[in-house]
Design a protein that fits this description.
1 helix; five-stranded antiparallel beta sheet; 27 strands; mainly beta; about 325 residues
């Protein structure tokens, strides 16, 4: 998630609404939209609808092709089968938004709680909330997450820190301050810093996109020291979710309605622009995941009227 006036306006409205946009019952089963995607891997629908009144932002996909996304409106989590498009609400939120989320090796979802400053651990099988950690208070926005390098790492878009939730998820998260070449984020919550996060292809460091600086950084997880990744072409402006698949980096550029694709060095210090993916179905895309030879892109639709409980969105399937 990246900040603009329109998006900040949405965040304030969402906080005021709480669950108001979900007054009606959420659909227990959302149907796939459009034709089936071409046969790379398992064929599946070209787009998967999320329920009315559910505004998706993050995405995590299991090895078996089950996708999970969280609602910015009340924090509910939705799961869908990428092969069929059928899905259901896994767990209903209690008012705190769900932003980025990832699966760990124990079948749990690690969920970034946005302005609540919370990190939630959710059982991906039955939806039970296993733990809630208060990573930060005050002006904060816990935005995205990646699993690796000793635990789950979360970005805070209003503060120049990462939060490490150690493996197991039972210990309290600790803050790791970003330093080195990292461009400081102005205080107060008017400017957005750290957003999407991934691991380098060699798994030894982290990659973090900085919204205001319009730059990608390699971060040493031991110290928080950041060095700017040199990119030959392309852009990470309006960079939101990151996906690393092998040596390929996908940068979802929400307000540019595009995904820029780079080939990375193994250590993440340099990237070469490959191509830009655009699609008329992109509607303020925020995050993505790779599965079965396809790229699944989440539409957050920030400019839509989410006070209308009939408003809905999609996860679209694209060629890599």
């Amino acid at each position: 998630m990246t900040g603009t006036l329109g998006r900040r306006g949405f965040i304030g409205a969402a906080a005021a609404l709480g669950g108001a946009a979900l007054l009606g019952p959420l659909a227990p089963l959302a149907q796939a939209q459009g034709e089936r995607a071409p046969g790379e891997g398992r064929p599946g629908p070209a787009a998967i609808a999320t329920p009315p009144g559910f505004q998706p932002e993050g995405i995590a996909v299991s090895a078996r092709g089950v996708a999970y996304t969280g609602s910015l409106i009340d924090g509910s989590i939705y799961r869908a089968d990428l092969a069929t498009g059928a899905g259901r609400i896994l767990t209903r939120g209690q008012g705190s938004m769900s932003v980025g989320l990832k699966l760990d090796g124990r079948g749990r979802l690690l969920v970034a709680g946005g302005g609540s400053g919370q990190i939630r651990v959710v059982d991906a099988g039955d939806g039970r909330v296993l733990a809630v950690h208060q990573a930060a208070t005050g002006t904060t926005f816990v935005n995205d997450v990646v699993v690796g390098c000793g635990g789950a790492w979360f970005t805070d878009s209003f503060n120049d820190v990462l939060y490490l939730l150690p493996d197991g998820g039972r210990q309290a998260p600790r803050a790791v301050r970003l330093g080195g070449e990292w461009a400081p984020t102005p205080p107060g919550g008017a400017d957005w810093g750290a957003n999407g996060i991934e691991r380098t292809p060699d798994g030894r460091a982290l990659l973090v996109v900085h919204d205001t600086a319009q730059a990608l950084y390699r971060v040493d997880p031991r110290t928080g020291a950041a060095t700017r990744t040199v990119l030959d072409g392309g852009s990470v402006a309006n960079g939101d979710g990151l996906v690393v698949h092998g040596r390929t980096l996908y940068v979802v550029r929400n307000w540019d309605y595009a995904v820029d694709v780079f080939t990375l060095d193994a250590d993440g210090r340099r990237g070469r622009f490959v191509k830009r993916i655009t699609d008329p179905r992109f509607d303020e895309p925020t995050t993505a995941a790779v599965h079965g030879g396809r790229l699944y892109v989440v539409n957050a639709r920030f400019d839509s009227d989410w006070s209308d409980p009939a408003t809905a969105s999609t996860i679209v399937s694209c060629s890599l």
